[in-house]
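thread: overnight batch results

M.L. [08:02]
morning all. the overnight job finished for the chain we discussed friday. pasting input first so we're all looking at the same thing
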Amino acid sequence: MSTISAAAVKSLRDRTGAPMMDCKTALTECNGDVEKAIEWLRKKNSAIVAKKGDRETAEGRIAVFIDPAKQVGAIVEVRCESPSVVKTEQFVSLANDLAKQVALKEPKTIEELLAQPFVSDAKKTVSDRIVEVAGLIRENMKPARMTRLTGLLGSYSHHDGSVGVLLQVEGAKADPQMLRDICMHITAKNPVAATREEIPPALIEKEKEIAKTQTAALGKPANIAERIAEGKMKTWFAENVLLEQPFVKDDSKTVGELLKGAGLKLVRFVRYKVGELG
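M.L. [08:03]
and the structure it wrote out:
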């Protein structure tokens, strides 16, 4: 196989925090496959937590819009070329306009979105609106992805536009501030899924295998090792399943308990971070 480069070792080190020599060994053992190397490291060290930094390289902004009266909302990611553009008034306004467009006009695809009459000025299309801003700033920009939800909604967008969340719940009524707080929680804790049932079976099996490998290394009797592995999985679910995560503003209760106490049921959440693969 080809020689493992120093850059590849450093990249794996940045993502996992593992020692450089361990990273080089992992890449060598896994023939340069980064994801397999991360799994190899995790089996060796339960403290390894892979970061997604390598996937988050594009510039852009996440915008969210909700119309409470119509009970519709949308979250969009709009890409641009350079960091300096992200915080400009023109680009922020464009991102917010596109979120409003998706919420109110319900395009099914990016292509359909671009061809629609612009919601705030039907004399031009959404594409015209984007070209207008791109021409002013002299930089290429485009919508990358979008999601539209209906019903009782909450949202949160980080101040720099790097990450945002749109949340849908069911119930008679919902406190907007509580929904915003839950969205902030999702922003910070980045759950894998809302419930255990939504986690891909392959991911659960992989985590079980990692837990068993870590436990086997302790040299405990089989029955004790099994209980330790089960405990590790319970901890993993509590860290990665939204309804089982301790609420960031009051860790005496889970997010699921908070919603239940408010008479609400979680339907869905959408979390976008700029540059992530959607």
